[in-house]
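[audit] Reproducing an earlier prediction to check determinism. Same input, same settings, fresh worker. If the tokens differ from the archived copy the diff job will pick it up downstream; this log only records the rerun itself.
[audit] input (174 residues):
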Amino acid sequence: MTLTPAPIIETERLILRGPEPQDFEPIAAFYADADRSWGFDGPLPRHEAWRWFAGSIGHWHLHGYGFWTVTLKETGGIAGIAGIWNPEGWPEPELGWVVFDGFEGRGIAYEAALAARNHAYGPLGFTTMTSNIVPGNTRSEQLARRLGAWLEKTYTNVTMGTDQLFRHPGPETL
């Protein structure tokens, strides 16, 4: 049972779908891992991970976009989340991604982020996208650059503190 109006997006290897109740456990595990979640405002205790999950579901209803659950076509395994995030206090909509433990190094984040950005530029009609990356999150910085984004500025994010805003190329240049 999907909890959002999220469209389903298929790529060569992935299915991006709206959050479902069983998706909470991988989110809770991600947020419990300090080494993995620090760049995403973690670690968080389970009850705070639940609040983030519930807020993510609400984000779809308020904005018409949000984070998809990223699953593998071949196995149905939940590999991460990717999508568009723009909570109160954010400078503008952001393209974000997380790959869960055991799914790194396969190009999943790139494939999912590219699909989410294409959706933003296509059906949603966005003309620009950013990715907000905590300084020191080198893997996300590398992925943003692989997607064609560049570091536009460092700013104070209301949630994360010092943050870097990477600007993605617009749809007219892709």
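[audit] rerun output stored. Observation attached for the diff report: The two ends are 35 Å apart (CA to CA).
[audit] end
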